[in-house]
């Protein structure tokens, strides 16, 4: 319950909302969304904008409930969300996702959605009492 309440606070915090840099008079847009299936919340997907010199980049984050793993939802959702992101935020040129090395299915979903493995941050995560690696997956907008 505490995690859910914290997530709601993050989503409601307008300082985390986004507007495209090329359209400064555009309205702020909430970049985090619930994934619904048959009226049930089964996960979430969203963007975390980078700042300053990295402001043309966002981290894409997502999760899906365990009973929905392996059903092929995430690659489809990722592709659709990326299309929406490119349309909504024309200034963005890079999306990246960070995946725990012990979660290869997440990397497979990103690969199916067109992302490529950029690199591995060795021993960069401390979670559940263990130190582990993190993969960085990236997708670029075609720019001229």
Largest sheet: 6 strands, mixed
Briefly note the structural class of the backbone: alpha+beta
The total of beta strands comes to 6
Q: Output the CATH class name.
A: Alpha Beta
| N-to-C CA distance | 46 Å
Kindly provide the radius of gyration, computed on alpha-carbon positions and rounded to a whole number of angstroms. Answer: 16 Å
Give unreliable regions as ranges: none
Shape: globular
What is the CATH architecture term?
A: 3-Layer(aba) Sandwich
Strand order in space, largest sheet: 1-2-3-4-6-5
Q: In percent terms, what proportion of residues is strand?
A: 35-45%
Assembly state (oligomeric): single chain
CATH superfamily: Gcn5-related N-acetyltransferase (GNAT)
Q: Which percent range fits the helix content?
A: 25-40%
Q: Average pLDDT, to the nearest integer?
A: 92
Number of helices: 3
Order of helices and strands: HEEEHEHEE
Q: Count up the domains.
A: 1
Looking at the structure, the CATH topology is Aminopeptidase
Furnish the topology, listing elements before pairings:
Layout: H1 2-12, E1 32-37, E2 40-49, E3 57-64, H2 73-88, E4 94-100, H3 104-112, E5 116-127, E6 130-140
Parallel strand pairs: 3-4
Antiparallel strand pairs: 1-2, 2-3, 4-6, 5-6
Task: Briefly summarize what is shown.
It contains three helices and six strands; from the N terminus they run H-E-E-E-H-E-H-E-E. The chain is an alpha+beta fold.
